[in-house]
Amino acid sequence: MDLRRLRTFVAVAELGTVSKAAVRLRIGQPALSRQIGDLQQELGLRLFDRVGRGLVLTAEGKQLLADCRRVMTDLDAIREHAEVLRRGDRGVLKIAAPPHTIESVLARFLPQYAERFPNVNVELIEALGAEQTAMLERGEVHVGIRLEQGGPRFESRVLPPAEALAACATSLELGHAGFIDITRLASYPLLLLDPGYSIRRLFDAACRLAEVEPNIVLESRAPHTLLAMAEVGQGVAIIPSLQRTDRYALRIVRVTHGRKPIRERVAMQWDRRRRLPSYAVAFCETLAEYMHTILPITHPTKTNEAGGRRQLVSRRFHGNEKGRIRPNG
Question: Which domain holds residue 187?
């Protein structure tokens, strides 16, 4: 069986059109169409139905797609292993991570890694949990940094957990002694990350357990959008303690449920069927050590004892102050 035909089949199945697949594979559309036709004739099966200008997998095609992807992954793994054996400490390392992890952790870690592996080209891809799963399964990245996922497919290196934090304008007195329970927090105008972020999913789950309906005023894939809005009093941003906030004047408190902090288990994961290059193994080991020394990146705002009771250092919030936020109800 011609492996080129299998690769063509997978590309067309993923992209839905011959033209897009031809661009990805860098071959002409007529040649690509012939390969699909030859594969269907060889297998004695119709793999696609034409719907409008696109192609849709038949029931038989859907069943074969997983097998073909597995063959492609195994073939890529053989090539990568041979490349590792040939090069040693030289090659490309592809890492998928959320935007805040790239900014807050990897941006400062990579120069240290480059000193040890100057001949490794690290490619970073912004991706959230489900996106990373697809990339890892297709062999598009070596390692994903995300909420730990179970199952036999992935190998994990567990990292220190990240906590859910609430960030607001310094004029707002939020919570008590550096904490706020989710039952009290839910009524504030909330600035939340996209549901693709693991900290958002944990926050939503905690709201369901507490039987509260969060007052969401903005959702965004960009954490800095939420922090900028929170700084000027437009809401309370919910972020992970992995996120840097030092560019903003904010009050930070921990988010709790039932007096327990809301935490996410962060891990580096890779497809256990693919052998990692030695420089990728070293990347995981050294990054884990680095993260243990720097986490958490963002801490709750420090408090002082004053006037016989505990107060936040920043000035107090007055409910009638113009332009400032307050909880509903």
Answer: 162-264+299-312
